[in-house]
Structure formats: C-alpha cells, structure tokens
Amino acid sequence: MIPGVTSRRRFSDLSEQEILALAISSEEDDARIYRSYAEMLRAEYPDTAKIFDGMATEENEHRRRLIDLHQERFGDVIPLIRREHVAGYYARRPVWLMENLGIERIRAEAEAMESDAERFYLNAAKATTDAATRALLGDLAAAEAGHQGRAGELEEQHLDADARDSEERTAKRQFLLTWVQPGLAGLMDGSVSTLAPIFATAFATQDTWTTFLVGLAASVGAGISMGFTEAASDDGELSGRGSPIKRGFASGIMTTVGGLGHALPYLIPDFWTATIIAVIVVFVELWAIAWIQNRYMETPFFRAAFQVVLGGALVFAAGVLIGSG
Asked: Using 50, 70 and 90 to split pLDDT, how confident is the model at 100?
C-alpha cells in the first residue's frame, strides 16, 4: 500500500452532503489563494491585486451560499473533507511555487483554477445517475463558469490599457534587475576573468588535463565568489532589485558557465585541437554577451561588441603571453 493514495475516497462514493462540504472547503481554499496573490502583488502591481481581491470576495460569496444550502438540507455540522481526501480531484499549486513566476503566469493560473473546477464538476455530473446529485454538480459548474465571467469583468474594471502597460513595464524592469543584470555580470566575469589563467596554463604546460582542472577550479571558484558577493551586496529592499538569493544564483551560475565554456574543450587530449575549439568558444561567448547587452540592456550593439571583444582580446593576449614566457 502507498500511504496517502489508497486511503483517498473516490468521488463516486461521496454522499451529496460530502460533495457539498467538499465544494465549501474548495471555495475557502480558492479565496485564500486569491487573497495571497493579492498581497503578493499589491506593492508592485496594485491594479492586478484589486482583481484578486474582487475574485476572493466572489469566492467568499459562493461559499456563503453553499453553507446556506448545506444548513437548509443537512444542518449546521459540515463534514471535514478537502481536495486531498478525494482521489482524482483537481489540485491547486502551492502559492509559494507561484511567487517566482511572472505576473502573466499568475493571471493564467487563476484562470486555470476556475476552468479546472468547472470542468471537474461538469464531468462529475455526467458520471452520476442520481438526479439530485447531478443537479447539485451542475449548479457548482455554473458557479465556477460565473467566476470566470466575473474575473473578466473585474479585469476590465481595474486593469485598463494604461494600467496593464505600466505593470508590464514594471515586470520587465524587475526581470532585468533580478535575473538579466546579475546574470550578465556573471557571464562577463566568468568569460573574461578566466581567460588569462586558462590560456596561461595551456601555453605554459601544453597539458590539456591540467588546463582543464585549472579552468574548472577557476570557473567554480569565480562562480561561488560572484554568487555570494551579489547576494550579500544588496538585500533588494531599497534598490528594488529583487531577492538577493535569486540574484546570487543568477550571477554565480552564469559566472561558472562563462568559465566552463572555454575550459571544457581541454577535455580533448590533443592540445592544438582543444585550443582552437576553446578560442572559437571564447569568440562565441563574447559576441553572445554583446548581443545580450543589446537585447536586454539596450546598449548599442557595436559599442557593446567593441567593449567586450576588446576587453576579452586583451585578457586573452595577456594569458597567452604569460604562458608562453
């Protein structure tokens, strides 16, 4: 037996009272999720937060109506039954999983929440032969469909074109500050700063394995250093640059990737083959950095290319000269 799976009830085995209790608990959970979304977004996306406040209010109203119906049919004691108690019942993603996703993804998740609930109730209604249960499930499906319509009305009410444009600009800026900027800094540092030690070792020893080990150590060490430096430099509270942990990971990982790009070719035993491939990789890395600067930081491409390629070429030349000397 698998704990937590075989102990679940089948939906077909639930009584009408239990189905009603399940609907009540589901409405409570969804209202709580919408309130959490609203609080999560309120500081940066106040207009979208109002949408989720309104949806939470709608969920609470449906819960109240369902409770009134339960009291009328079955009395005041509502059975304790939740989504996780029923096999095959639709699940909700934890709110903490949504915190790292963009605003459009959260809006889409809310729409999917209502759609999933409506579809489930419609399918369940088709599967039952009891008239009263079928009517109850149909009513619940209609309520969920009504939620979707109400969500659209709330979006039109609180999120006009100007508000949506403003929130999209805020989301883009947050993405740049939290992920692109520290990631780009890490990629530049990893790609450029490791050129000298890797190629100095390569030309000094002409031993590909030793060169690879030096490159691996330099890349991983630089990645750890950059990651901790980025995370410790700014907690993001005043600057608005976002979570220091996210920025640290972005910077550290991209630093390591930047260095490993031209260290990995030295896994090839032949020195000159490995070196030629490493030089080609360096060329691609530097142009990729210039493209990212142009694409996300709006730096003119030729200026970015000149700065990055010139800097990289100087560091590369220094490594070769030191290793050959």
From this structure: low
Q: Give percent above pLDDT 70 in the chain.
A: 78
In whole angstroms, give the CA distance from residue 275 to residue 215. Answer: 13
**Whole-structure pTM value:** 0.52
Q: How many CB atoms lie within 10 A of CB 32?
A: 15
CB atoms within 10 A of CB 103: 19
CATH 1.20.1260.10 domain residues, the chain: 9-159
pLDDT at 105 over 90: no
Where does 9-159 sit in CATH, by number? Answer: 1.20.1260.10
